[in-house]
Design brief:
Strand order of the largest sheet: 4-3-5-6-7
Structural class: alpha/beta
CATH topology of the largest domain: Dna Topoisomerase Vi A Subunit, Chain: A, domain 2
Radius of gyration: 21 Å
Number of strands: 7
Order of helices and strands: HHHEEHEHEHEHEHE
Bound molecules: zinc ion
Mean pLDDT: 93
Helix content: 40-55%
Largest sheet: 5 strands, mixed
């Protein structure tokens, strides 16, 4: 690579850090950019530069948005007393892409995983507990859908949250777990729409 100008080498190296991009793809991308109109590369650069400051975490559900509240929480068409608990924003997107879910979300930020040193306190579980508690003051009925992935970590997380929510002793709190439509060990993120829809529809009380 020594024969290439430094600015090209630097950008190739930067692209190589992206997931799924090897040295060959990185080089191909840089040469592609060199052949596109300058307006495109300028816009792209600006979008990349601004993405971290523009994107915010929703104060209620920890989804991504551009304001204090995300699009889902802002909408008055969504049932605020139906909370679907997911591990990550990509799982939320998988459910949203199917369409038809009328509730809101709570994004945990991952799952309990002792091997990776991720404990309950590293996730937005306490925030969920207090959110449900507060909601119970104004809502007659609440449903919390535990939609963490059907992996070992996801199941442990669902079980932990179930116990914590039950400890609150809230009447008319319905706890459900997404159905067995999803293959064991798979993530919502990678499932096709029909499978995600089946998993949501097949949720059962736990
Ligand atoms: Zn939100």
């Amino acid at each position: 690579m020594a024969e290439l100008p430094k600015s090209i080498r630097d950008l190739v190296e930067a692209f190589e850090r992206l997931p799924g991009i090897g040295p060959k793809s990185a080089t191909r991308l840089v040469f592609y950019l060199l052949n596109t109109p300058v307006a495109y590369t300028k816009d792209l650069g600006q979008m990349v530069a601004e993405i971290k400051s523009k994107v915010k975490t929703c104060k209620v559900c920890y989804n991504m948005g551009e304001d204090d509240l995300c699009g889902v929480c802002k909408s008055d068409k969504r049932k605020k007393n139906m909370i679907c608990v997911v591990e990550r924003v990509v799982d939320l997107l998988a459910i949203e892409n199917v369409g038809g879910f009328v509730g809101v979300y709570h994004v945990l930020g991952g799952s309990i995983n002792p091997l990776d040193h991720v404990g309950p306190d590293d996730l937005k579980i306490l925030e969920l507990i207090s959110r449900v508690k507060k909601l119970s003051e104004t809502e007659d009925e609440i449903e919390v859908i535990l939609a963490s992935n059907p992996t070992m970590e996801g199941e442990a997380t669902a079980l932990y949250i179930k116990k914590k929510l039950e400890d609150l002793g809230i009447e008319n709190l319905k706890l459900t777990r997404i159905g067995s439509g999803l293959p064991i060990g798979s993530d919502l993120e990678y499932a096709d729409s029909a499978t995600v829809a089946r998993a949501m529809e097949g949720r059962r009380e736990v």
